[in-house]
């Protein structure tokens, strides 16, 4: 990889972790300072690495961010409110080092996710702030997640940042144990969106996307291990992500082309992740709570645990999609339901179902599915038209 590609990938992977650790030290009131420290470090990397890459680029980033953070504390410690341990030359180094240890980096990221789900912030603003600040998703990517425009997302991010500065020190406090469950829904939604945007992304940054999927699973596992946040819905989301992640290496062929479910080589599926997903799905069945995560996980289990595509229980899968529509009547769910319906009643019935849906014409995957269904139905002119419409939408997304 070229130095600019390494820099870009590392920035996407590490910037949120670095930022969470700096904010943990300096407080949310210094959000701009924390962002400047991380950004200045990345700019320094861009300028220096083009001549020669360091032996360990990641360690280089962390060392520079730590040094810049210590410099800021030393210069401004009389002007900003900081922990007493950061005000002493005897302890400042060890405190900063501790905040940037591998374990603390992960904890800081999860801590910031809960802190970002502050009740004074609207939920869409909470989620947009987390996706942008802690996970490096672009405004364009976030707008795609919310099916919104970039201007709206930019305004949400601005309001979230302003509210964090107003809240000051309180904004980075981890909520008390009895408050964690109230914020858990938003945190889980963020983890779900991080995973799905990465797993189903139109971007070709496959290495980076796989890392983000792994990050989402790791964060959810931490929630599953915490006595307060461990719950059936957490286990269900973990099961869903494990089932999907198990097929990661089989989704793209040697030419970089996306493969359909039927085309995938099952020998490339990760059996350990499938078993892990099955275990978490069983654990999620405790209690009487059923969430969209449960239903999606059961659908994913039908695909992952089947011996072959032909042996999938399509009727049961269609029933699950009908239940999922009660929770989430999104375009994605409807398109996937059409695919399952085609397996039971044929392409004509699936086409009829899709054409009856409203506000789908601007959806890329709607046209791809119709193109495939019309091809199966022998109506090649219509198939070609929908594939052409899909191509136009890909061009718009790339722009």
Q: How far is the N terminus from the C terminus? A: 24 Å
Bin the helical content.
55-70%
Tell me the series of helices and strands, N- to C-terminal: HHHHHHHHHHHHHHHHHHH
- Using only CA atoms, what is the Rg? 23 Å
**Uncertain residue segments:** none
Q: Write down how many β-strands occur, each being a DSSP E stretch of 2 or more residues.
A: 0
Q: What is the beta-strand fraction?
A: under 5%
- Summed over residues and divided by their number, the pLDDT gives a mean of 83
Shape: globular
Number of helices: 19
Based on secondary structure, the structural category is mainly alpha
Largest sheet: none
Protein architecture, described:
The chain contains 19 helices and no strands. With 399 residues, it is mainly alpha-helical. Among the domains are: 231-312, no CATH class; 328-399, Serine Threonine Protein Phosphatase 5, Tetratricopeptide repeat. The longest helix has 24 residues, at 3-26. 35% of the residues are buried. The mean pLDDT is 83.
Précis, in short:
With 399 residues, the chain is mainly alpha-helical. Helices cover 70% and strands 0% of the residues. The longest helix has 24 residues, at 3-26.
